[in-house]
Every structure is written in structure tokens, then in C-alpha cells.
Amino acid sequence: MEKRKKPKESLIKAITSGMKLPPPELYMGASLHISSMGAVQVEGCKGVSLYNENFVELDLGSCHARISGDGLVLVTLSKHTISVEGRLFSIEFSY
After folding, report:
1. How open is the CA angle 68-73-78, to the nearest 5 degrees?
2. What does the DSSP assignment read for 26-56?
3. Rounded CA gap, 36 and 44, in Å?
4. pTM of the model
5. What is the rounded CA–CA span in Å between residue 78 and residue 51?
6. Which of 17, 19, 20, 58 is packed most tightly, with the most Cβ within 10 A?
């Protein structure tokens, strides 16, 4: 008796059918990547509202993020990505 191989697609469906994927809104907003070495990279940022060595306030579209610290420096400032380095104390969000 000859066995038939199941198509690869049915195997993928079987594996992923039990998985719950995050909602699409999760990927649409800004994302923050925080390093324990004192760096924050923000993708999807709309702009910088306030900047000095102790505070950086970012416009994320649906909210603002205020990064507090000591010796903060904007390392990367491109169209949608901002990197801040320094001694980080806190990150606050306001809606």
C-alpha cells in the first residue's frame, strides 16, 4: 500500500491553527527598543517635541513619550527612527 504525502500547505495550517497572532494594531504604531546599556531606539516616531540633556519628548502619533535621564543625546535622527543614549531614568507615556 502506497502512502500519499500531504501537501506542505496543510502542514503549515496544522501548525499555525492553534497559534493566536497579535492584533494588526500592534504593528501599526510606534515601537520602542530599550537597551540595558542606556539606549532607546524609537521606530515610527512623528517628531521631537522637546529635547535637552535631561528630557526628550517624542510625538508618537497617538501619544507622546517622555524619556527622562541624565546626559541624553540624540544619536540617530532620521525620517521615522530616533535613537537616544545616556543614563535613562524613566519613560512616560501621555495620551
Report:
1. 110
2. HHHS-EEEEETTTEEEEES--EEEEESSSEE
3. 21
4. 0.70
5. 15
6. 58
Chain mean pLDDT for the chain: 84
Beta-strand relationship, 55-59 and 31-35: unpaired
Q: Is 38 exposed, middle or buried (0-12, 13-18, 19+ CB in 10 A)?
A: middle
What Å distances lie between residue 62 and 35, 45, 49, 56, 76, CA to CA?
24, 10, 14, 17, 22
Distances (CA, A) of 36 to 6, 15, 29, 30: 47, 35, 23, 20
- Specify the pairing of strand 47-51 against strand 64-77: unpaired
| Residue whose C-alpha cell is 528630557 | 55
pLDDT, one tens digit per residue, over 73-87 is: 999 998 889 999 999
> Which amino acid makes up residue 56?
V
